[in-house]
Amino acid sequence: MKLLSFNIPEVEASFWDHLETLRWTFIRVLLVVVSIVVVMFSFKDFIFDEIIFTPVNSDFITYRLLCKLAMWLNAPGFCPEAFDIKLINFEISGQFIAHLTTTLTIALIITVPYILYEIWRFIAPALYPNERKSAGMVFFTSSFLFYLGSAVSFFLIFPLTIRFLGTYQISSVVPNQISLQSYLSTLFLLVFAMGLMFEMPVLAYFLSRLGILSRQTLKAVRNYAIVVILILSAFITPTTDPFTMLVVALPLYLLYEVSILVSKPKMEEIED
Questions:
Q1: Chain centroid to CA 93: how far?
Q2: Nearest Cα to Cα of residue 111 among 232, 224, 30
């Protein structure tokens, strides 16, 4: 007996269907972020004493490693002098607000892979099957690069920045009194900025697939890109030594070279 089969055509989703899907995407992300905030809110001592405030004195791991490197290279200038930066609070609700915003920011950082997954889940129906196959690798790479950039910022860029700016004085009669809000805003700005900057290869990959960018273009502007990277590194780490600037510029330059490798070449490049 032969069974009848019916080919039911796929019905394209309307604008309101997409809007409803996007609304539920935001709701799921919000629920996950709020859940993490609620859980982490009770770990105040660990979050601030063991993570957030560790770079304010010379016992931080980055400074100790620099001192070991100075001994190995016989270059005492690499070892930071002993220091201890004191933070102050000006507003009556300042510490509570700092606790809340810090917990929320860390929750957002932790949730980045899930947010990327929700973004992919939203756009997946519009992708071709071959594009969906590579989405998993892009998802993993995006999450990894964001956390790598955040780690580079927290363990390298921010400590060197806060050590220089926190101990810099135009005169001994003007002591530094760094506010809690200034410290936290600088920390999270650098963490998010470097996390996003490390997404450079993923951005280049997508732009090349859309035909906006090509491997040939990135190679052609490499010299200009190096100058921009050096200027950006000098701006991010306003220290007086070129070593710190080069330490920041090197991973950015390597990311640029990776961006060239993952970019799609033009058709004439393939033919050649």
A1: 29
A2: 30
CA distance 52 to 56: 9
What pTM value is reported for the model?
Answer: 0.79
Cα–Cα distance list, 14 to 118, 121, 225 (Å): 20, 17, 43
Confidence of residue 133 (pLDDT cuts 50, 70, 90): low
Total count of residues recorded for the chain: 272
Residue 8, pLDDT score: 38
Strand (E) or helix (H) holding 88: strand 87-88
Name, in order, each residue with C-beta under 8 angstroms of 41's C-beta and a sequence gap of 6 or more.
Answer: 99, 100, 103
Q: Is the Cβ–Cβ distance between 260 and 205 less than 8 Å?
A: no
Instruction: Decide if 139 contacts 117 (C-beta within 8 A).
Output: yes
Same domain, 163 and 33: yes
Domain count, the chain: 2
